[in-house]
Amino acid sequence: MNTLHQLNPTAAAYLRNKTSQFWVAAFIPGRHYGQDTSNIMERINFDFKALRELPIVELLQTLWHKVRYQRYQQATTHNAQYTPYCLLKFHAYQIEARQHQAQIASPTEGRIAENTPYGTRYHQVNLQTKSCTCYKYQQNDIPCTHALALILRLNYLFPLVFLPQFCSVQTWQNTYSSNFHPIIFGPHVPSPEPQTDSEEELACNASRTHIPRGRPKQERYRRGEARQHAPRAQEHLCSTCSQLGHNSRTCRTLHD
User: What is the pLDDT of residues 16-66, one digit of tens each?
Assistant: First the structure.
């Protein structure tokens, strides 16, 4: 923040007046599982933006084959106890954790000294509550480098037991083992009573879409973002009559 204040005092003052949970990843409420944004659906919309033009039945089938079936095959062929993402993250943290110094306060608590280019920083770790003052442990329950430094200092034989249950391959397989089930609501609820709605209102037709002219846009416009319009073609200026719209070869004005 001091560096930002030297570069742009106005921006630093603006961020100080805002709540930390709106611009600091460590203070975002809830768990975002390693994502840089608190809204994971934005990433899903980006991956599926080319599929949203399909009819509803084809859309569900494509989602099934593109995401669920593919990930289920990956989960069934993985032989380890935990997912590849969690294992890579855990081993990378473990290498960095060996460079920290841990002071044991209790079988579940300790203080970690981390050497940084700005000096030594201290963090409090509680393995029972799965918390650390760096707030990375609270993001997804995967032990951060400071928590792993305390785990290694306590000489645990199997540090992987501190990984959360959702990191296991069994949870991974169960997530993608079942198919989509339709959600029945509103006028589509089956009822023995005769329905007064017309068939057109109950029909599940393809979505009404249109193909815009020109090259497809790669990114959608966001709120408050200025649209950059293409520059207009330059009009010709006649060197004979000084009028726009034609040149001297096509000029119809009488001249000497």
Answer: 888 887 777 777 776 666 666 556 667 677 777 777 778 888 887 787 777
Joined together, the tokens standing for residue 171 give: 């949870």
Task: Provide the phi-psi class of 216: left if phi over 0, else alpha when psi is between -120 and 50, else beta.
Answer: beta
- Find the distance separating the first CA and the last CA of the chain, reported in whole Å: 73
CB atoms inside a 10 Å sphere around CB 27: 12
Q: How far is CA 150 from the centre of its chain?
A: 30
Quick check: 84 and 172 in contact, CB under 8 A? no
**Which residues does residue 132 pair with via DSSP β-bridges, in sequence order?**
125
User: Which amino acid is residue 171, in one-letter code?
Assistant: T
CA distance to 47, 48, 131, per residue, from 41 (Å)? 10, 10, 26
* C-alpha to C-alpha distance for 66 and 50, rounded to whole angstroms: 12
Q: What is the pLDDT, as a whole number, of residue 206?
A: 54
Tokens of 113: 């000294």
Burial of 147 (0-12, 13-18, 19+ CB in 10 A): buried
Sequence-separated (6 or more) residues with CB below 8 Å from residue 36: 25
Tell me the one-letter amino acid at 145.
T
Map residue 218 onto helix, strand or coil: coil
Packing angle between helix 84-97 and helix 145-153, nearest 10 degrees? 70
The 10s digit of each residue's pLDDT in 190-243 is: 554 544 545 455 555 555 556 667 776 666 656 555 555 545 556 778 888 888
Note if the pTM is more than 0.85.
no
- Asked if 112 and 146 count as a contact pair (C-beta separation under 8 A), the reply is yes
